[in-house]
Amino acid sequence: MTPVDSKTVDDDVIALAGIYQAADLVKKAARAGSVDAPAFRTSIDSVFRFDADTAESVYGGLAGLKNGLSTLAEQLDRRDRKPDPELTGYAANLMFLERKLSGLPWMLQTLRQEIEAARRVAEQSNLEDQAVIANLAHAYSQTISRLSPRILVHGDPGLLKHADVANRVRALLLAGMRAAVLWRQVGGSRLRLLFGRKRIVSGAHMALSTLEG
Q1: What whole-number distance in Å separates Cα of residue 70 and Cα of residue 77?
Q2: Which sequence spans correspond to the domains of the chain?
Q3: Does domain 6-211 have CATH number 1.10.1060.10?
Q4: What integer pLDDT is reported at residue 96 of this predicted model?
């Protein structure tokens, strides 16, 4: 597999891929209870990368964002098919709530403390340990979940009653919020998304073709 040169992939494409990967994993977890393991690990790991030097390093390289790049291309490339309204909704809500969160320093501080607690658990086990996911889910519930409007997740009601599935969904929404923070940090905005759609789709396809080459 040929490595992707991150200098050829714009930072906002990487950030959006992170948002759409989290959104897609939320949808799948809520409906099937399970998700693609490598994509899940990449998204969860990104939550702990507060001070990454580059957009790519938030995800430990682009290979772990293959799911997100594919979903991003499918959602924004209007020549193929209409976008999935559920994924669009998750992505839009994450971006909106991130703007609210950025104006609440006390909540940001609480969130960071909660994530640090989850990191300490992860250091003693692994990223997929249920205790780690439960800690991240608690971090989401204590902060972002209290913002309005709350993100309503659609799925199998029976599955979502299970604590491990509900925790996985909340942890993934937190990963989506991490990506939304990155989106803002690299200059992302509604106008940039609207007028840069073709460039973003092209960048996602280019990264995918290199990863699959």
Answers
A1: 11
A2: 6-211
A3: no
A4: 96
